[in-house]
Amino acid sequence: MVGPPVSDVVAAVIDMPEVRQPGTGLRGEGDAQSPRNRAAMLGHDMRAAIADILGGLALADLSRLDPDSQLQLQRVQSSAEQLVRLTDETLALVTGDDAPRADAPLPTSLGPFLDRIGARWRAHAGQRGLGFRLERADDLPAEIGTDPAALERILSNMIGNAVKYSPAGEVRLRVHLGPQEALCLRVRDTGPGFSDAALARLFDYAGRPEDSGQPGTGLGLHIVRELAQRIRAQIQVANGAEGGAEVSLILPRRSWAPGVEAPAAMAELPDLTGCTVLVAEDNPTNRLLVQQMLETLGAEVTLVEDGEEAAEALAARRFDLVLVDIEMPRLSGIDVIRRLRAAEAEAGEPASPVLAITAFVLSANRDQIYSAGADGILAKPIMSLDAFGEAIARVLSKRPAFRAAPWVGAPFDRVHLDRLLALAGPEDGRELLGRMREDLGTVLSGIGEGSARDDMALIRARTHVLISLAGAVGNTALQSDAEALNTAARIGQRTAVAGLVPGVMHRIEMLRAALGGELETRFAVEAAG
After folding, report:
1. Residues where 4-aspartylphosphate occurs (predicted)?
2. What is the pLDDT of residues 253-292, one digit of tens each?
């Protein structure tokens, strides 16, 4: 469906009263046709449309295309990502909603960020018969704590000006660390450079000198300075000795380093091997994209296409993780989450981790989603596998022990054990029980050692074995606790690990003792002989 003209979008965001959110899943007070509500709906539809573009590009096999076509599609992808950020900023500006869109900002991977910048501007420069060169020093940080939206807007204006005013040659972006680990991003062009009059009014609003023969109003560098102040950076402008201009963005270490060492910064993506995940999403492109990302992380995925199907799936079984689109037919994501939380409370079950996916990004939307019971929010479009994995890790970290169940009954189910020994046969049954006790001993010592040494990999390895052992003898409570401990270790949630380890070790000891008793009782005659 073709969206409204840009002029309608602009007109819809002028003179806006207090916002109330419309939509099938995000209900609120007020007139749905008020300018601010219309702006919120337009913003939602714009994000949803861009999500389709980005999702389609992510699913497409670009390797079959010629290099020029690949470059153009990479440019489209980069521009669409930038459009998402500009949409958010515009919507926040006109509605007065300046709060963060979801959880605290995450560190930005500098390499992939620069790759996107390079792909976008290589295509732009090529259209004007120019070259574009990206030079990166070897000692750049892997991650920076700088707002990627602001940084991309700054570079877009810096590089855009350089491309505009270079009649031939190439534009170069050089990224390196300067004195005291300042991050320097320098854009050099082959144009005429800045006149004295232009330098005097360089950062003024519409500061282009009236007698300038160059097109435009000079707004770009005004925007650059304003954004640079926002991210605590400096702008330097100079004319090159051999012609051309050089505009530099300098981020002191205190500006780019904060947040990089925060717990949310993961060394690797979460491992979802063996985790069951329900995905409720009505858009087929988004559904396929999310499925591919989850399967890349190792998850077992169940897909549903609307809210009613999601509610039915959640009523039928429990999932390790639930991903719910907020705007769905028949039943909204808000109502799906509310039903799930009500059912869990009535049954006395622990709450399942829920990640809401939405194109609504205003604070009122977020408040309503969290009030319904979501553990986290991921804004559409999903920009990368890294962002997707980080959002999932945050949600799982909030409910690491959601599978844990109280200890009920005997340490093993006698029917399960009888069946297991019958399959082994009378001659091998004794050996099987003895080996299980030995394996449980190895698991017990490994979990204890892993906890003492803060070795999450060792805890994961031992709990992986424990899950199978507990399941084999029908100890569902220990199996659930082992799965919860495995999940907590996998995502590095050390507080949860510390809380789970004592109970798990105690139950392993109880199971070992019970199997030892069975060994003596069932094979007493053989032992006596």
Report:
1. 325
2. 888 875 443 333 344 677 787 789 999 998 888 888 889 8
Query: Residue 458, CB half-sphere, CA atoms under 13 Å: how many?
Result: 15
Is residue 152 within 8 Å of 224, Cβ to Cβ? no
Provide the pLDDT for residue 324.
Answer: 95
- Report the alpha-carbon distance of residue 144 to residue 252 in Å, rounded: 11
Q: Where are the alpha helices (DSSP H) in 28-108?
A: 35-59, 67-95
Place of tokens 């609504």: 360
Cα 455 to Cα 397: distance, rounded to the nearest angstrom: 17
Strands (E), 130-208: 131-136, 143-144, 170-177, 183-188
Instruction: Tell me which of 126-140, 226-240, 410-424 is least confident.
Output: 410-424
The full set of domain ranges for the chain reads 107-263, 276-398, 414-528
Q: Of the CATH numbers 3.40.50.12500, 3.30.565.10, 3.50.50.60, 3.20.20.370, which one belongs to the domain with range 107-263?
A: 3.30.565.10
State if pTM tops 0.70. Answer: no
Fold (topology level) of 414-528: Four Helix Bundle (Hemerythrin (Met), subunit A) (1.20.120)
Alpha helices in 297-362 (DSSP H): 307-316, 333-347
- As beta bridge partners, residue 472 has none
Q: Which CATH architecture has domain 276-398?
A: 3-Layer(aba) Sandwich (3.40)
Distances (CA, A) of 406 to 301, 475, 478, 483, 507: 27, 11, 9, 14, 11
pLDDT band (50, 70, 90) for residue 346 = confident
